[in-house]
Structure formats: structure tokens, C-alpha cells
Target: Cytochrome P450 90D2
Amino acid sequence: MWPGGGSWPTCVGSVTAALLVAAVVLRFFIPSVWSSGNKRQAATAGGTAGARLPDGSLGWPLIGETLAFILSAYSPRPESFVEKRSLLFGKVFKSHLWGSPAVVSSDPEVSRAVLQADASALVPWYPRSLMELMGQSSILVLGGGLQRRVHGLAGAFFKSPQLKAQVTADMQRRVGRAMDAWSRSPESNGRGAPAAVRVQDEAKKIVFEILVRALIGLEEGHEMQYLRQQFQEFIAGLISLPVKLPGTQLYRSLMAKKRMTKLIKKIIQEKRMKRITEGGENLHGTHPRDMIDVLLGNGSDELTDELISDNMIDFMIPAEDSVPVLITLAIKYLSECPPALQQLEEENMELKRWKLGAGEILEWTDYMSLTFTQHVITETLRLGNIINGIMRKAVRDVEVRGHLIPKGWRVLVYFRGVHLDAAVHDDPHTFNPWRWKERADVVMSGGGFTPFGGGQRLCPGLDLARLEASIFLHHMVTNFRWVAEEDTVVNFPTVRLKRGMPIAVTRRT
Model:
């Protein structure tokens, strides 16, 4: 995820500290500083016939425009960096960010073209600390046929009705258990008094366990708790100084990943042995129980234990910074928009009454059929910008809709700039779920809505993210009323709620 924005630090000292940290980060993130001006020369050297390097500025020597980008990330309007330059140079412009010259796009059609471009020409780029932790076998950096195979297997599994049914049952059970605990909390005292809840923390606990079971088949218990502890240490280093000395965050995160890998490899080996002793698991018409089963069932020698374990850890990341944040932002926006909350309640209460009257349990198809609930989730994704953008690196000169991206340059597809563009979305800074009632297909097909990326690297778990958010919201609005406290969205280095979205909940009677 890429830096977006948040609120201004509370004092000048905080800004100064941020800039000093940024300077140090730049020093370590830049693999080769400016290359003696060679990359400046790349702007005018050769290129694809007919393509033109966008207008813009490379900023200051060494630091480029990165500090300006970071300052905007801390401001009330984190998209201001891109907006200002878009007014000067157009929605596609050149800059110099994170140690490299870059083309920045907030143009829907250009951004869509980048996402769908030849994957061998534009390859993923991530900070060095993240690359260290992910490893070369991560689906985030894999290319070619192996990437397509892993992505295809994951996408098919995450979309399967069997997994959606499993996730629905797990989510209903865990959400119900969590909400029962709220009712028994010391604040509630069992008498219906409001209980204090931090939505972000609660969502993370629930989603992590559900996703881990879907990925590696691990059930609740000591090993689940151990894995969560190690995962928290691991994820803390994703955006950190890429220094592996003992005592540094990256070193601690690498050690945590090593311990996680050991546990996951043990599970993989147990499954391999079971396939041998039972003549091949899932060979008699049964469905795979988890993602490891899917990958082992493919039978490819390329799908090694190392690759499988690395990617199981990668797939856990949405349980920390994607789905829980989506749920939390939805609660925040609904709390600030009573008409939307009322319509969401009415839609979900109607479904609940109908299913109770029919004596049926709620299934995953029921949740996904809630039209206004899906509009709320879509609008939350647009306004919240959980993923602010993605970066690609050009391995050769590339032309995208007449724009030249020189070899070695990066291209930043800035989703936030598109999602908050008044030319694409009316009154873009207002939470308005009703906007998706009529224009959804037009906006999405034109590249105006890309919260999950696109092309060959489209997020394979997008359906599950929507399903989990739908289930949480359904049980929240049909079982509780709440009063939200003030909280602010922080977007640097990842999107989160500063206080975890505290609310006071009261069970409906």
C-alpha cells in the first residue's frame, strides 16, 4: 500500500521528525542515488516512437519530490500532491519519488491501461523492506506462468461456493461470539448499558482467524494464538528501514516470519503425508478444505514448500490492513450519515425477518444479495481508499496511451486521485452510497473504480472481502445500536483509524 494521508501532526516537532525519518528512509530505499544524472537524461533519450514523456518536475537532487509527497500524506487532503501537479501538468505527469524518476497517473483510462499492460514490461515494485520480508517466491513479485498459476488457483478457490459457505459459517459464529462478549462486558454489566468497543481491533481478531483457517486449515487454539503473535511482529516490518541488524524492526520481523514458516511447513508436510497414505487427498470428489490443499492438489513441482509457505503468509496480510479497515471505515461513514445507516438497517432487518419466518439460516448468497449493503461497501472502498495506489517498474521503454515510461522508471497508479476526482465522481468527498444505484457499470468499466487493482494482479480475494464486510455489517445493524466517538483516518504508511474507531454499543431489544 502506498502513502496517502491523514491529519496534520499536532506540533511542528512532529513534522520535523517526520521529515528527518523520511530523509533516512530515502537513504536506505534508494538502490542507486540518481545514478549521476543518468535517469534525468533518460527523459530525453530514445524511447518508443510517437510516445512522449509527460510534463512535470523531478524536484530536488537526490530527494526529488518525495518529501512533498510525504507532507501531503500527513495533511487533511493527502491527494493534494497529485491534485496540484495535475492542475499544472495534467493527470499524467512526471515526478521523482522514493529514489526514482516516476510517471504518476490519476487518469482513469491511463491507470486502467497500466494495470492491464504487458506484465513482462511493467513489473511490480515495492520498498526494499517489504521485498526482504516477502521473498522472491511471493505472488506479489512472481512473474510469468508461475504467477498466473498461483493467482489462478487462489482466485478460483476464493470464489468457490464451498469456501464462501465455510467463511460465512465461521464469520457468523465468531461475530456472534464477539457480540455476546460485548453484551457481557463490564461496561454493559449484563443490564443493557452501553459497552465500549474498538471496531478495528475486533474486526482484526475475527478476520484473521477466519482467513488463517481458509488458508492453512488451522483451528482455534494455542497454535492460532502463536501464529497471530508472530504475524503481528512480522507485519510491523513491512514498511521499515531495510536494515537487518539484530534489534532492528526488520530483523525482528524476519525472525517472526522464520517461526511462522516453520509452523506452516509442518502443516504442509502433514498434508503431503496424508495424501500419500490415503492415496491422494481430494481425489475422490471431495473439495479442498484450504488453500494449501489447492496448491498441493495442483501437483506442480514448482509449487515447493517454500513457495507455498511464503504465499500463505502473504495472503494473511489482508486480515490486518484490508478487510478490517474496510469494516471499520464502513462503521465510521455510516455513523456520520444517518440516512444511509437507516436504509442499511431496514434492508438487513427485512432479510433477517424473512429468513426467520421461513425457518432458514442465512447463507452467503443472502448477504451478497443485499443491494444497498453492497453500495455501502463500494462507496466505503471508493472514499476510504484502503489501497491508495500501486507502483510498477518499466523493464523497457513502454508506451501507455501516448505517454512514454522510460526503461528503469516507475509508474505510480494513484487510485485515490481517480476515486476523489470530481470529473469522475460527483461531490467525491461525500459518502453517498446511492451514487452506485445507476452509474456503477459505467464508472467501473471506465477505470473510475479500482480499489482491488486490476489486470493479471487483480486481488483474488475481492469477493471474500465483500462477503466478510457484509456479514459483519448485517449482524451489527440487526443486533446493536451504537454511538461513535470522534476518530480520524490515518493514511501513512497504511490506512487505519487513529483510535481504532471506538463506539458505545447497546443490544437491540
